[in-house]
Amino acid sequence: MTREEAVLILKRFFKMQHVDSPGLNENNVGGASIGDLELYFEYIPKEEALNCSALIYSFREEPKPGVIDGFKEEEQSGRASTGGGFVDYQPENKGLFLTRSYKEFVEDLDFLNDMEALLGASRVWSQEVLPKVAERVFQN
């Protein structure tokens, strides 16, 4: 996917959300709050990929050992849907996300449905999976 295609996808997505946005800034990132949920976008030129990340949780400090592994184990178990994404901890912003990556152009309605699934899954992970993982990790 080219940067121009990524920008086009995002502009159309934002327009469907009634938001006027350039899609990506000069640093190849963008984002949106949709209700009480947050989506972040990053175009990776080397990979020609658009990464779309729905926030699960923002840590104030580096997470304690085992916490991120606990989330990855939960992802592998398949007990909770990831909305088509994968568990993604980003140390630079201490954010835990469900991230979906696109290397090919995707049609507007498909992208909208994918983002709705990703956001819905992030809500479940934030409200239901997070407490379970924390309890399991901190009990040991």
How does this model look, in words?
The protein has a five-stranded antiparallel sheet. The protein has helices at 3-16, 67-77, 108-139, and strands at 29-34, 37-44, 49-58, 86-90, 95-102. It contains three helices and five strands; from the N terminus they run αβββαββα. It is of the alpha+beta class. The longest helix is centred in the C-terminal third of the chain and has 32 residues, at 108-139.
Structural class: alpha+beta
Number of helices: 3
The first-to-last residue Cα distance is 44 Å
Strand content: 25-35%
Name the strands of the widest sheet in spatial order.
1-2-3-5-4
Largest sheet: 5 strands, antiparallel
Q: Write down the Rg.
A: 15 Å
Q: Say how many strands there are.
A: 5
Short note summarizing the structure:
The protein is α+β, with helices and mostly antiparallel strands and 140 residues long. 41% of the residues lie in helices and 26% in strands.
